Structure formats: structure tokens, C-alpha cells
TrEMBL record:
Domain of life: Bacteria
Domain named HTH lacI-type: residues: 16-70
Keywords tagged on the record: DNA-binding, Repressor, Transcription, Transcription regulation
Species assigned in the record: Pseudoponticoccus marisrubri
SMART domains in the cross-refs: HTH_LACI
Matches recorded under Pfam families: LacI, Peripla_BP_3
Listed name of the protein: HTH lacI-type domain-containing protein
GO function terms (MF aspect): DNA-binding transcription factor activity; transcription cis-regulatory region binding
InterPro entries in the record: HTH_LacI, LacI/GalR-like_sensor, Lambda_DNA-bd_dom_sf, Peripla_BP_I
């Protein structure tokens, strides 16, 4: 098969233009523009007519050229971390579908172990994104300042940084911790424990705060707490061993996410010979798919991920269109999902 050079200059010269489509369809250039602009007002008849001409000529709009004219790329940077946690795959699915429905596209960056969040943020900003979502690590002042200077709306997703000058969309983790405490208070166990993720993570702090408050207001105490190095199953197994190896071993434990809870359940049964939930009541947080499996049947708190993503995209869409320095925080309620991992006191 004979190959021939295909330099960029020749490719660009042979491209069909919007003007060619307008001529073929017998419509104005502005009509073609409206058809290919997400959300623009155009009749179904006009859309069919223009698309038929575009298909016949093999026309595709030049997104890069349009972005130069409009100063909009329709790109939203999404920085995530810890894909060992399946909840982030669900989050990514919701983001891509919701952004696409608004005529926006996702530019995904994964902050792997050892990588610097600020470096990733600088990289994504090089693509002239119209908005930025961060659900990974601590957001530095440099990131918030750069976004503010460029009028790029920045949303912290599923976490509540202690920093100003950014939007926040997350579950109400303090209230969720309280619900976890209330559920365990209904069990027949009274030695309460907490198994958190990284000690400095806002999710660990807030969920633990709500849990401690619920237990202490009921006249009890949280007698033991451990923190896993990350929100993963493997880190959870190490933390579970420390918690269960104590002389004052707790028998009612709130785990700050489901992977930690599953690790605790497996270590309790496999290494300590405990019967669940008779010897140990456990509640998790997130409601990942595996939580419902017969192996675990984990009682947990479900984060409203789809609603959280919609709220995030709503903020982005508003602020991309009309910039404002009024920062919003939207917290959504979690829902308790009762299964079989708590030994409820049937006498109550």
C-alpha cells in the first residue's frame, strides 16, 4: 500500500468550512453556527437540514478555532485521586455525563501517589479550562489565587477545605457522623470506636466530629480511635489490627468509609475469630456497590453523589457564564442504608 505525506498545512487546506455547509444547505452561516452550538435555539427542521449537509460534505466544526474566537474552551478540569476507591469511578461517570449534557467536556487528571496536586493544577490550567473541580488533597493558596485571577470557577468536591476563595460541594459529613453514632447507639454494644482515614483529611475530621458528638451526648464515650494512612482496603487492614488488638477492644465501630469497614470485617472474622455482628457492630460510609454483597451486608451512609455532581456543575455553569466572587458552600444530606452489620437491641 502506497503511503503519501499528509502535512498539517495540506490537511487544513482541504477541510470543509461552515460556509461550505451553509451553501450546501441553502441557509445562513449563523444558522450553521447555531446548530453546532450546544444550547443554542434552533428548530428541529433546521437542525436536520444542516446536519444532512454537514454529513454529506464530511464537515466537523473546528473546536480550537471557535475557542480562540469565543475565549471559551468548554473544558472543565477534574482532578481526582485514589482510584483504588470505587466511589471515584462512580463520581467520574456522573461528571462526564452531566458535563456533556451541558455542552461541556471533561479534562481528567489523576493525582497518583507521590504526585503533587499543585503541579497537576498548573498542568490543567495550561489547557485554558473554563472551570476546575478538585477532589484530591489540600488545595493551596496558589491554586485558588490563579483561578481567581483568571476568573476560573474552582469547586472543591466531596471535601470541605479550610481555605476561602473557592466553592465547596460535599456531603454533610458531620451530620453523617451523627447518624452513624445514632445507629450504633441502637445496638446492644456500648464500647464505641472510630476508624478514620488520614487524620488531616476534612472527611475524617468532620465524620469523626459528628460521631463523637452523638455518642457523648448519649452519655457514652468513644474509647478507641485509629487512622488509616489512606482510604483504601489495604491501609484499613493495618488500622483494623491496631483497633482490635487493644485490651479495651471496641465492639461498635464507625468506619469513615466502606473500604475501611470491609477491611475491619475481614480482619475481625479472619484473624480475630469474631462473629459479626454478634461480637462487633460496624457501620461504614459511602455505600459502594460491594457493601451490599452477601459477604458484607454492610450498614452504611450513602453519599448523594449524583446530586453532588449536579450541584457542582450547576455552580460551574453559572460562574462560567457570569463570574462572581461570592463563594458558595453546598452540603447535602446522607442517607442511612440498613443492612446486617449492626446487632440491634431487639428489646428496645
Amino acid at each position: 500500500m502506497k503511503e503519501s505525506p499528509n502535512p498539517p498545512a495540506e490537511r487544513n487546506a482541504s477541510r470543509v468550512t461552515a460556509q461550505d455547509v451553509a451553501r450546501e444547505a441553502g441557509v445562513s452561516l449563523s444558522a450553521v453556527s447555531r446548530v453546532f452550538t450546544p444550547g443554542a435555539s434552533v428548530s428541529a427542521k433546521m437542525r436536520v437540514r444542516v446536519m444532512a449537509a454537514a454529513d454529506k460534505l464530511g464537515y466537523q466544526p473546528n473546536v480550537l478555532a471557535r475557542s480562540l474566537m469565543t475565549q471559551r474552551t468548554n473544558l472543565v478540569g477534574v482532578i481526582l485521586a485514589n482510584f483504588k476507591n470505587p466511589i471515584y469511578l462512580t463520581v467520574l461517570d456522573h461528571f462526564t455525563r452531566t458535563l456533556q449534557a451541558r455542552g461541556l467536556r471533561t479534562l481528567l487528571l489523576n493525582v497518583s501517589e507521590g504526585q503533587d496536586l499543585e503541579e497537576m493544577a498548573r498542568l490543567v490550567l495550561q489547557y485554558s479550562v473554563d472551570g476546575l473541580v478538585v477532589s484530591a488533597g489540600a488545595i493551596s493558596p496558589h491554586i485558588t489565587e490563579q483561578c481567581q485571577k483568571r476568573r476560573i470557577p474552582l469547586v472543591a468536591f466531596a471535601r470541605r477545605p479550610r481555605r476561602a476563595n473557592l466553592h465547596v460541594v460535599c456531603a454533610d459529613n458531620v451530620a453523617g457522623g451523627r447518624v452513624a453514632g445514632d445507629r450504633l447507639l441502637q445496638s446492644r454494644h456500648r464500647r464505641f470506636g472510630f476508624m478514620g482515614g488520614p487524620s488531616g483529611a476534612s472527611t475524617t475530621i468532620d465524620r469523626g466530629k459528628g460521631f463523637h458528638a452523638a455518642v457523648e451526648e448519649a452519655g457514652h464515650a468513644v474509647i478507641a480511635a485509629t487512622h488509616a494512612s489512606e482510604y483504601t482496603y489495604s491501609a484499613g487492614t493495618e488500622s483494623a489490627r491496631k483497633l482490635l488488638d487493644r485490651a479495651d477492644r471496641p465492639d461498635a465501630v464507625f468506619c469513615a468509609n466502606d473500604l475501611l469497614a470491609m477491611a475491619l470485617m475481614d480482619v475481625a472474622r479472619g484473624e480475630f475469630g469474631l462473629t459479626l455482628p454478634d461480637d462487633l457492630s460496624i457501620i461504614g460510609f459511602d455505600d459502594v456497590d460491594l457493601a451490599a454483597a452477601s459477604t458484607y451486608r454492610l450498614t452504611t451512609l450513602r453519599q448523594p453523589l449524583e446530586a453532588m455532581v449536579h450541584e457542582t456543575v450547576d455552580i460551574l455553569s453559572q460562574r462560567i457564564t457570569t463570574w462572581s466572587e461570592g463563594w458558595e458552600t453546598r452540603q447535602l444530606a446522607c442517607t442511612a442504608v440498613d443492612r446486617d452489620s449492626i446487632a440491634f437491641d431487639r428489646a428496645d
